[in-house]
Design goal:
Layout lengths: L11 E2 L4 E4 L3 H13 E2 L5 E5 L5 H7 L2 E4 L7 H5 L8 E4 L6 H11 L2 E4 L21 H9 L12 E2 L8 H16 L10 H11 L3 E8 L2 E2 L7 E4 L3 H9 L1 E5 L11 E3 L7 E7 L4 E6 L3 E6 L4 H9 L2 E3 L2 E4 L2 E7 L2 H12 L7 E4 L4 E3 L1 E11 L2 E10 H7 L5 H19 L5 E2 L6 H8 L6 E6 L23 H4 L4
Parallel strand pairs: 1-3, 2-4, 2-6, 4-5, 6-7, 7-8, 8-24, 9-19, 11-20
Antiparallel strand pairs: 9-22, 10-21, 12-14, 13-14, 15-16, 17-18, 22-23, 23-25
Helix pairs in contact: 1-12, 6-7, 6-13, 12-13
Length: 478
């Protein structure tokens, strides 16, 4: 399927101000999309960043750039002159508490969007914090608790809306609709959370992988003591050091030896007593085939499992297992290997691949498995060549994120008083409409691949052959 051509279409006229917190690879990439598709004068946009990395991008379009790290002590005084009723805060930073910014926005009457739920520095890695409280599960529970403080005038606040988490939640809904049609299941597009959950259950979806393979490679190779990535090094490293975690489904019969449950919240997820950067899982994408990815913790693993839960009175009757399986670009794999080998101490040099990328794609999608046709992958196969044609300051990875940031902002501006929302709460059709021109080929492919494919070729393994989609079969080690 050929990607739709981009246009200069203004999706929404916005009379307020926009404040962007952070201007790394995602902030720089989303800025031209905001100016292209949101009706706002550049004079009403301010960027606040902890370092100078985004100044060139800001200066190139005439947007004010303020170098100022936000802290627990200064974030209110820095933001107060810039943010008021009807304005918008886009948070694409690291080490700035999402909860703190949301509370401030609600006090000021401003809308909000982030791409992940961030804590203040140390929230991911401080050993004095219990492991269960350093998970995305815990961060999500803290954010969702804010709903108790909302009312019908609370500004729309969208959490975790980048590529993943974010865009992939819309991919999942479209994939479910496609599978239902292909299986001859007569259904209308559900209008409620319960309706979506029943649809997933009726189709027999056992497992949902966020299955991603990044093949972008650069002319200049990774050097010793350097971390190279196609998106935020700080963000990837922080996620990699958190406990590996996943949404835990009702089809699972083999609880991991190193698995732990939470004693609070929805109970939709579990975590492992090891970091995601050291945990591998099997998955499949159409171009890469079967691969080993890292089980990097992501909010969508928990929100997906929770959203598609079917309850029978007070008992969970159905819930899919969900996790991220990420094979980053080869330079990032080598960087991660060196990082783990240094006992999780970050290399002294970091580099984001952009202009020096030679070729490759980011194949990002969702793999829905366990139904009558085994498994179905739906997602984006965006190449670096196409990304460069579509938008400045982007590679294939960042553009999948920044397009979803744009669509989430438009969703909020079109519905400004909906309180706190997750991607699953949004109109998936509207978001895909906005994102698709920036995603390259968007395809759906069935496969007969399972995690048991070509196993025990070298050594016998302890497999659960009664159900190939058990997490036990997906996990590479342990």
């Amino acid at each position: 399927m050929t990607a739709p051509k981009t246009t200069e279409k203004i999706h929404v006229e916005f009379p307020g101000r926009i404040v962007m917190v952070g201007c790394g690879s995602i902030g720089q990439g989303v800025l031209p999309l905001i100016l292209r598709h949101i009706g706002i004068a550049k004079e009403r946009i301010n960027i606040i960043a902890a370092d100078e990395r985004g100044r060139v991008a800001a200066d190139s379009v005439g947007v004010k750039f303020i170098k100022q790290a936000l802290t627990p002590d200064n974030h209110r005084s820095v933001l107060e002159p810039l943010l008021g009723r009807g304005d918008f805060l886009l948070n694409v930073s690291v080490d700035v508490s999402s909860i703190a910014l949301i509370r401030f926005c609600w006090e000021r009457g401003a809308m909000y969007l982030d791409t992940c739920i961030e804590p203040w520095p140390g929230g991911y890695t401080d050993p004095s914090i219990p492991h269960s409280r350093r998970t995305n599960y815990a961060l999500r529970e803290a954010a969702m608790a804010l709903r108790k403080e909302a009312n019908d005038k609370t500004p729309t606040t969208i959490i975790t809306h980048g590529a993943n988490p974010g865009l992939v939640s819309h991919f999942i809904k479209q994939a479910l609709v496609n599978i239902a049609a292909d299986l001859g299941v007569q259904t209308q597009i559900p209008g409620t959370r319960a309706g979506w959950a029943v649809l997933a259950q009726s189709l027999g979806i056992k497992t949902i992988h966020i299955a991603e393979r990044d093949t972008q490679n650069a002319v200049k190779p990774k050097m010793v003591d350097e971390f190279v990535n196609t998106w935020s090094v700080d963000g990837f490293v922080s996620e990699g050091m958190q406990p590996a975690e996943l949404g835990w489904g009702t089809n699972e019969r083999n609880f991991p030896v190193d698995g732990r449950r939470h004693d609070f919240g929805s109970g939709a997820g579990i975590f492992l007593m090891q970091p995601g950067a050291a945990t591998r899982v099997r998955t499949w994408t159409p171009k890469a085939g079967h691969i080993h990815g890292f089980l990097i913790t992501h909010s969508e693993a928990i929100s997906t499992a929770d959203f598609y839960t079917v309850m029978d009175q007070n008992k969970v009757a159905y819930r899919p297992t969900c996790h991220y399986s990420y094979h980053p670009c080869d330079s990032a794999v080598v960087s991660l290997h060196e990082f783990v080998g240094k006992n999780y101490h970050l290399q002294s040099k970091q580099r984001i691949l952009m202009d020096e990328i030679l070729d490759g794609i980011d194949e990002l999608g969702v793999l829905l498995a366990g139904h009558k046709r085994n498994a179905y992958w739906y997602g984006s196969q965006l190449s670096i060549d196409e990304a460069r044609k579509l938008a400045p300051f982007n590679n294939a990875t960042s553009l999948q994120v920044t397009a979803a940031c744009l669509s989430g902002m438009v969703s909020a501006m079109e519905n400004p008083h909906r309180g706190l929302l997750e991607p699953e709460d949004l109109d998936f059709g509207r978001n895909l409409e906005i994102c698709k021109p920036y995603l390259g080929p968007v395809v759906g492919k069935y496969t007969d691949w399972t995690p048991l494919h070509d196993r025990e070729r070298l050594f016998p393994e302890d497999l659960d052959k009664s159900d190939p989609w058990q997490f036990k079969n997906v996990r590479v080690v342990g």
